[in-house]
Design goal:
The structure is a single chain. With about 300 residues, the protein is α+β, with helices and mostly antiparallel strands. The chain is about 25% helix and about 30% strand. Bound molecules: 4'-deoxy-4'-aminopyridoxal-5'-phosphate.
Amino acid sequence: MFDLTYKNKKIWKNGELVSWNECSVHSLTHTLHYGVGVFEGVRAYNTEDGPAIFRVKEHTERLFEAARIVNIDIPFSIEELIEAQKTILLENNFDEAYIRPIIYLGNESLGLRAEDLSVNVIVAAWEWPSYMDPESKQKGISVVKSPYRQYKNPNWSNYKITGTYVNSIVALQDAVAKGADEALILDNDNFISEGSGENIFFINEGLIKTPTTRNCLNGITRQSVIRIADDLGYKVEEGNWSYEDIIKCDEAFFTGTAVEVTPITKIDDKVISGGAVGSITKEIQTSYENSVFGIDNNSRNWLTYIK
Ligand code: PMP
């Protein structure tokens, strides 16, 4: 993914720009051993008025909230980390990119009781136009019900904490091994939760449904899509939905910073919406695109221009 040209790119590390290849982490870094770290996934788009980061404030606030939950005190302000995200795009000449801020604990000592560890902040960015197959957004993807359950501890469900992603990774590996594109993960009460890195929506007779945030990440794309659906005159019902509810849907789609709005056209053996992108899904997908590219006036305040 990172071809040779990336060796000339920079990564923002603890307030300085370091070269891509030299931005390494010590093997005794605490976060590597115990998973106590927090991260974000953010996207920048090349709009008519130049490159802009989509909802950077909300993403950065969520990063700070996640850090608070795992007792990490970030040694920068929200404003400083928003500036860092702009800087990394400008320095690397990216007009469109995926941005990955991550906070991790240092290697000053190791063990569960290690104290006074340094808090390290990285902001990297790379060009990542499609998270899945480039045709996924036009053709739709398949999912399979996962044998894994999301968030054994619901305290972690609303934060991007590195350690909690083990569950997402094994669920995705299981889905891919079964020939599907993504996992459909349920929670411990058997309600629909989310994908390995996406929120899920489904539509029944024109009514849009999505799980409550009790057991899924309150995705920023999820929140954007709820607003967009409302603008388009659709009702979105948040609730506890079962596998039986979703399997009889007319349309379904995933949302996320990486996948944006990606239609789901197959759940296990059941073909959804005739195997094609449903009309409401298409409408929401187009409207989301208009928002991230600054075409939709209603969503202009979601963009932070970098130049
Ligand atoms: N759920 C999980 C588990 C995720 O990792 C993500 C990606 N951050 C999402 C949902 C979607 O969140 P967002 O729209 O904020 O990217």
